[in-house]
Specification:
Blueprint: E1 2-5, E2 11-14, E3 20-23, E4 29-32, E5 39-41, E6 49-56, E7 61-67, E8 70-72, E9 79-81, E10 88-90, E11 97-99, E12 107-111, E13 118-123, E14 125-127, E15 134-136, E16 143-145, E17 152-154, E18 162-166, E19 171-175, E20 177-179, E21 186-188, E22 195-197, E23 204-206, E24 215-219, E25 222-227, E26 229-231, E27 238-240, E28 247-249, E29 256-258, E30 265-268, E31 275-277, E32 286-289, E33 301-302, E34 308-310, E35 321-324, E36 327-330, E37 341-346, E38 357-359
Parallel strand pairs: 1-3, 2-4, 3-5, 4-8, 5-9, 8-10, 9-11, 10-14, 11-15, 14-16, 15-17, 16-20, 17-21, 20-22, 21-23, 22-26, 23-27, 26-28, 27-29, 28-30, 29-31, 30-32, 31-37, 32-38, 34-35
Antiparallel strand pairs: 6-7, 6-13, 12-13, 12-19, 18-19, 18-25, 24-25, 33-38, 35-36, 36-37
């Protein structure tokens, strides 16, 4: 067993194939545990990855600089603690526990094209790697990615989401959120406006307090986009928005969606699967339809009243959404030759109106 302790300056510390304890202390550190079950503590300061480039259009040359920092568990069952500062934690293989500590643990990138353009990339976050991992962001705006294995991700306080903006900038932003990756994962946003994405596997996503949703604004000079919400991805997922107005998208698979309190938006992008909505309230919540996945001549905006009918089937060629009992169907051609397809079950058989649908 090795016990390595850094200095108050920038340190690079590498463990052994056995169990190690590595402490970075202050400033920007790079800690690597290698094999074995290790404890890595970054201490104060930013422990992350920094990359920068500058492209000179006059000479056609690219100047590139790269500084590596962060906590890397590698193989074994590791415990990584970021401490204060902005951190990059990567558990690698094995069943790991990652704690980002205070401040922001996320990724941000900026790219600018022009005569004297340049760019900087600052990468941070908590990455579980292979194995069944536990990731906790605690305070700050965090990026947590479980990757392979059955993982538990807890965002902690403040917002864990994605934000990007562009004007003269080609692209830029701060990226955060909880990403389950492969496996059956538990993602919990806690307080703040969060972005949760389960990806593959049968996942449970809990938004916690405040709204977890998506917001976008277009400007003549560029665009601004704030992304949050619960995205189940592939598999049969359970999404619970908790308090606040939430955006819930189950993705593929048979998903169960609970908005909780607040005005919630339930997104349907295709007719391939049947999702269950447990708590829809007409006039407060919305069903958002992605037209590209449905066809049938849907136009953006509030659903046309003549495209919605309550009954067992379409009664004319205009009908698209049919609400029968607690079951919601879609019919691409009304009284045409195509069969209606069930897309959702609404528990409690709530009132449903055309105005409860928005088309995108």
């Amino acid at each position: 067993m090795a016990r390595l302790t850094g200095t108050e300056n920038n340190d690079t510390l590498t463990g052994t194939a056995e169990r190690d304890e590595i402490y970075g202390l202050a400033e920007r550190d790079s800690l690597s545990g290698l094999e074995g079950n290790d404890l890595l503590d970054g201490g104060e300061g930013d422990d992350n990855n920094y990359k920068g480039y500058y492209f000179d259009y006059g000479t056609g040359e690219t100047v590139y600089r790269e500084e590596f920092g962060g906590l890397f568990g590698e193989a074994g069952n590791d415990s990584l603690v970021g401490g204060a500062g902005e951190d990059l934690l990567n558990g690698g293989k094995g069943n790991d526990t990652l704690n980002g500590g205070t401040e922001n643990d996320f990724g941000t990138s900026y790219y600018y094209i022009g005569g004297g353009g340049g760019g900087v990339t600052l990468e941070g976050g908590l990455f579980g790697g292979a194995g069944n991992d536990s990731l906790m962001g605690e305070d700050g705006n965090d990026l947590l990615k479980g990757e392979a294995g059955d993982d538990t991700l807890i965002g902690g306080a403040t917002d864990d989401n994605g934000y990007s903006s562009g004007s003269h900038w080609v692209s830029g932003g701060v990226t955060g959120g909880l990403y389950g990756g492969n496996g059956n994962d538990l993602l919990e946003g806690n307080s703040g406006s969060d972005l949760l994405k389960g990806a593959k596997g049968n996942d449970t996503l809990i938004g916690g307090t405040e709204g977890d949703r998506s917001y976008q604004t277009n400007y003549d000079s560029g665009w601004e986009r704030y992304i949050g919400g619960l995205f189940g991805g592939a598999g049969d997922d359970l999404l619970d928005g908790g308090e606040g107005g939430d955006l819930l998208n189950g993705g593929s698979g048979k998903d169960t969606l609970t908005g909780g309190t607040g005005s919630d938006r339930f997104v349907f992008s295709s007719t391939a699967d049947v999702d269950r909505i447990t708590d829809f309230t007409s006039g407060e919540d919305l069903i958002e339809i992605i037209a590209d996945g449905f066809g049938g001549g849907l136009t953006p905006g509030v659903l046309n009243a003549d495209q919605f009918v309550i009954g067992t089937g379409a009664i004319d060629e205009n009908d698209r959404f049919i609400y029968s009992g607690k079951n919601l169907f879609y019919d691409v051609d009304g009284l045409g030759g195509a069969n209606q397809i069930k897309i959702a079950i609404l528990d409690g058989t709530p009132t449903l109106l055309a105005s409860d649908f928005t088309i995108f």
